[in-house]
Inverse folding.
């Protein structure tokens, strides 16, 4: 657009670029502020996302899986009568979806474990010793003893806290008491083969794990089970699988629950951590924007004389405004791109080894948190950083440029 | 110190201050950058501290209290045979330590049974009058009511347990327990309250009745297994040591909450570790910001320094001027940052930061959605100290650069 009164956009671009190149050192320092700010923002955002994602993964792998299928009403009633009578009807679907990396069948019921004089209420869970390892990491959480041996019927694994409360040791004979479908109380002797520590208190405090086959015989349940637990390849496929199963299975017969519904408390906990991280990131974002604005203002302050000369030779205010704005926006976007690249490089170099926080907390896992944080870049954080950059560009571009247009000529020229 | 050195120092100070005053806007902007940075650090730390205080407070007054006293080994293996032999000695020690918030409990394992099914529970007998002094369990009863002193064979269950048993208020619940010799006992209770806290461990696996009822049921009149104490968080370690000393030789264990649930303390440490990582990075941003403004202002003054050098000022003196400027800016920035941060924490601490805007629901892991940031003096000292050191370092580089200037080139290029 070339009019007699205005300059073409190309000219502005040219002017802005030349200004930036002319004062290389100042440009470099300003650019460095931006690169540094955006890079740290990227890193912090990635740390936050990595931490949240690890919690999610740990939760899903510790016990629940991504998706569970029960007979309709079981999650509320926890009653064996609400069981899946023909698991075959569900399990035949498992082969057809590539998103499923593992699945297992379980029976859950409450019971009482006793050894010596002491007894404790437990959540008896029966699972297939081999299939389970495809779904959760419980087998790797056995801190002493061994995992359930396939084909051996009286193996028992207890949660760490239950075992402690009972004073039970590996090899002990432990009596489990449960209720059959008809209400009859039955008890049997199991041998403590392993002790499990997941870091999730409600599991460690209540779990008594036995093998599925022996439970089905003991409880006279035939082939029926209470849960079919599915692990997806990535968290984001949970919704897709949920929709697939709701289409395939009758809602009168089955309830299909994603992990968020299985433990509302964990979902709230994750939401809470997310909100906490958001508040912290927000403060950092504001800080970075202020630092960028600051650098721009200072660099403008040092250019007053130069601007005064430009005004003196008759450049209109709007032109100065546009020129300075363009300069700032160019700087910020170059800074943002380089900063994001730098931040990403930092994230990738840290992603594998992670940042170890064990010096703050002795190597431990509690409530699904890892003491080693692996930062992770997500599309979400990219959007967050992009919007922060845009705001910074607007604020740090428009405000100083607007201030410059209110320059008093005599003042500007007088200043050293 | 001889006359000429002190004159030089005086001149350096005067020149540095005059420089700062002459370029008021630049000085103000640099101070502002430090102040905002420090204020963010203070706020972040305060926000984190407020969150942890809230969480630990809720955790303790949900049920476990700040300190518990039991017979040795009871916490690991709770058995009725490990009742406290001499509760009156404990009470005397508590009076001695000027503790008024305490309550007695009798705790044992049991089974809660309805017509439908049974659930394993921790059976707790509580003193209805004194319990409120220590914990806020009464507030977490969403359906029905808390125990009353005249209650007999009434029971409170967690929502999950009640749900699993499919019982509602007024229904009969059979509690199966063991006496201290291991013989099985069963009694019928009336359900009067349901805990609907949404918090871990409270809604499941707990059956609460009055102390008198449970004592009668297990035939242990006037016996207790647990003394629960409520205390100000800051006094817990000292009080634990004091009680331990007073009760030495009584075969008792005095356990603060962090000895009973070390994971909770570890959690706080880990969360702090995560925050320190953030604070460290934020500190770098602040440092980079100051270094930046100092460098830019030095660049723009190259000519000025050239003139100063031409009239006989040495490079070291110029470096000293710049360093003094950096330190003055740092100190003023820190003071205004502390004020700003203090006002922000005070304000947000009073009204709270409502996270429920960002959250879907209201009940959660012992954390209220309204966070009240809290300022700790030692945190204030650490952050200010680090910023001061950082601003000296930020001044060192430009000062070193300035000391290397060649007057002629500086005047020509500046």
């Amino acid at each position: 657009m070339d009019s007699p009164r205005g300059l073409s956009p190309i000219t502005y671009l040219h002017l802005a670029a030349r200004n930036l190149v002319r004062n290389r050192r100042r440009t470099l320092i300003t650019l460095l502020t931006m690169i540094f700010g955006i890079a740290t923002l990227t890193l912090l955002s990635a740390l936050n996302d990595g931490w949240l994602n690890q919690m999610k993964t740990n939760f899903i792998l510790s016990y629940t899986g991504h998706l569970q299928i029960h007979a309709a009403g079981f999650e509320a009633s926890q009653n064996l009568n609400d069981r899946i009578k023909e698991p075959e009807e569900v399990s035949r679907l498992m082969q057809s979806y590539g998103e499923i990396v593992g699945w297992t069948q379980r029976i859950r019921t409450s019971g009482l474990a006793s050894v010596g004089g002491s007894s404790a209420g437990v959540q008896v869970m029966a699972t297939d010793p081999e299939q389970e390892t495809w779904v959760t990491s419980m087998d790797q959480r056995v801190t002493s003893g061994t995992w359930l041996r396939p084909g051996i019927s009286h193996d028992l694994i207890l949660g760490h806290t239950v075992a402690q409360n009972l004073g039970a040791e590996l090899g002990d004979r432990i009596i489990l008491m449960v209720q059959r479908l008809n209400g009859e109380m039955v008890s049997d002797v199991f041998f403590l083969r392993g002790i499990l520590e997941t870091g999730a208190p409600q599991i460690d405090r209540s779990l008594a794990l036995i093998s599925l086959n022996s439970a089905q015989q003991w409880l006279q349940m035939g082939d029926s089970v209470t849960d079919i637990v599915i692990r997806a390849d990535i968290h984001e496929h949970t919704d897709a699988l949920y929709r697939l199963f709701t289409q395939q299975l009758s809602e009168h017969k089955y309830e299909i629950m994603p992990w968020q519904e299985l433990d509302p408390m964990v979902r709230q906990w994750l939401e809470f951590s997310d909100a906490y991280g958001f508040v912290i990131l927000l403060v950092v974002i504001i800080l970075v924007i202020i630092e960028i604005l600051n650098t721009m203002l200072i660099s403008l302050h040092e250019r007053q004389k130069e601007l005064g000369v430009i005004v003196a030779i008759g450049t209109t205010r709007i032109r100065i405004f546009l020129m300075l704005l363009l300069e700032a926006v160019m700087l910020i976007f170059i800074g943002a791109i380089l900063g994001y690249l730098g931040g990403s490089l930092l994230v990738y170099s840290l992603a594998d080894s992670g940042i170890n926080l064990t010096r703050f907390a002795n190597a431990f896992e509690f409530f699904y948190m890892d003491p080693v944080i692996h930062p992770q870049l997500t599309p979400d954080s990219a959007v967050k950083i992009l919007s922060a950059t845009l705001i910074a560009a607007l604020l740090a571009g428009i405000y100083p440029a607007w201030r410059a247009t209110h320059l008093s000529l005599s003042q500007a020229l007088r200043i050293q | 110190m001889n006359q000429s050195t002190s004159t030089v120092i005086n001149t350096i100070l005067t020149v540095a201050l005059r420089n700062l005053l002459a370029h008021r806007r630049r000085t103000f902007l640099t101070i502002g950058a430090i102040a905002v940075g420090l204020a963010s650090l203070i706020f972040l730390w305060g926000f984190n501290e407020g969150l942890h205080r809230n969480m630990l407070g809720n955790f303790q007054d949900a049920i476990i209290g700040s300190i518990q006293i039991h017979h040795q080994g009871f916490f690991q293996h709770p058995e009725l045979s490990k009742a406290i032999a001499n509760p009156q000695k404990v009470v005397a020690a508590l009076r001695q330590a000027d503790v008024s918030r305490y309550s007695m409990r009798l705790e044992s394992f049991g089974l809660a049974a309805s017509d439908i099914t049974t659930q394993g529970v921790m059976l707790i007998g509580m003193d209805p009058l004194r319990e409120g002094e220590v914990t806020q369990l009464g507030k977490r009863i969403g359906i029905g009511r808390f125990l009353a002193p005249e209650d007999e064979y009434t029971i409170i269950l967690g929502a999950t347990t009640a749900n699993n048993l499919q019982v509602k208020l007024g229904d009969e619940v059979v509690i199966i327990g063991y006496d201290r010799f291991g013989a099985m006992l069963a009694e019928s209770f009336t359900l009067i309250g349901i805990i609907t806290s949404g918090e871990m461990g409270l809604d499941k696996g707990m059956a609460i009745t009055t102390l008198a009822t449970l004592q009668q049921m297990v035939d242990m009149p006037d016996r207790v297994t647990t003394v629960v104490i409520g205390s100000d968080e800051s006094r817990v370690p000292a009080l634990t040591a004091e009680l331990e000393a007073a009760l030495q030789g009584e075969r008792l264990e005095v356990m603060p909450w962090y000895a009973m649930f070390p994971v909770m303390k570890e959690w706080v440490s880990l969360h702090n570790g995560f925050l320190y990582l953030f604070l460290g990075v934020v500190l770098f941003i602040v440092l980079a910001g100051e270094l930046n403004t100092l460098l830019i202002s030095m660049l723009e003054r190259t000519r000025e320094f050239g003139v100063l050098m031409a009239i006989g000022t040495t490079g070291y003196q110029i470096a000293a001027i710049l360093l003094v400027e950096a330190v003055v800016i740092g100190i003023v920035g820190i003071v205004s940052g502390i004020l700003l941060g203090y006002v922000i924490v005070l304000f947000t601490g009073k009204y709270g930061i409502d996270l429920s805007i960002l959250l879907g629901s209201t009940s959660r892991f012992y954390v209220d959605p309204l966070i009240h940031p809290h300022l700790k003096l030692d945190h204030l000292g650490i952050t200010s100290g680090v910023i001061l050191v950082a601003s000296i370092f930020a001044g060192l580089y430009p000062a070193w650069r300035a000391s290397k200037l060649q007057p002629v080139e500086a005047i020509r290029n500046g």
Observations:
- The longest strand of chain A covers residues 100-115.
- The mean pLDDT of chain A is 85.
- Residues 24-64 of chain A form the longest helix (41 residues).
- Residues 73-250 of chain A form one domain.
